[in-house]
Amino acid sequence: MPQKWMKSIKLMLLPALFLLTLAGCGSPSVGDTYPLESVSSKDQGQTSRVYRAENKSVPVVAKELADQNTPDEISKEDSQHMFLIYPNEVYHLQQDAAKPSDTLIEIDTKEYVRNNYDSSFLQGYILASVLDDLFDGHKKSYKGSYRGYSSKDIYKPSGTYHVPTAEEKKAAPPVTTSGKGSIIKRGSTAKNSDSSVGSDGNILKKQVEPSKSSSGKIIRNSSSSSSSSSSSVAPKRSSIFSSPKSNSPPRTKTGGFGRITKRR
């Protein structure tokens, strides 16, 4: 009896342990982990959001973010500034000058970086090849002097930061540019039209055209009496074969032994 109870308890605990494992595997986003502190938004995709990680150093926060979402490039470990480069955003981690125990997480769109940051400042943290790609190979044409949110009062960006509104706090960061996708039908010619899509545009409802190949014929055997089977079907015979044997009654011979033989 105790063994049965132990098996029942184990079976009940397994689903709970599985759910706890799944809960621990999820990687929360920056907005779910850290509070949003400031927002700067302009036209042409220039957006910057700043979050605060309390009582965490820059290298510690950088490792946490890199473990959650592997960046394309990450700068060398530094206690004051570190950069994580993603396909559409740049994460600038910086020590808060007013509260050195905290780390400010600034998430900038690449357009914001191009139009605001001082390229010479970025050269000390980002590889030259990555920097050329970030600025499209024209660093000299960008004359920004910005060096991050922690020094915004000294090196002012072209836009202004403000306390986020309730709507901005609800928005999931980072902001991405919306686009439109399209599905096109495979090209076809007049001789070979694509009928893989239904008339209502549903690809699951294919239009099947009847086969245009030559069709065969079936004929029924003629029958001389009603007793013969009238539903038998036979293929059409070619002219090179002999005609079927007659089904007429066998002939008899007179003056013999009275035997009945079939005609050969």
TrEMBL record:
Top-level taxon of origin: Bacteria
Keyword flag Signal: yes
Compositionally biased spans, kind Low complexity: 211-250
UniProt region (Disordered), positions on chain: 165-264
Span of the signal peptide: 1-23
Keywords: Signal
Pfam families cross-referenced by the UniProt entry: DUF4247
Key word Transcription regulation present: no
Listed Polar residues bias regions: 189-199
Protein's recorded name: DUF4247 domain-containing protein
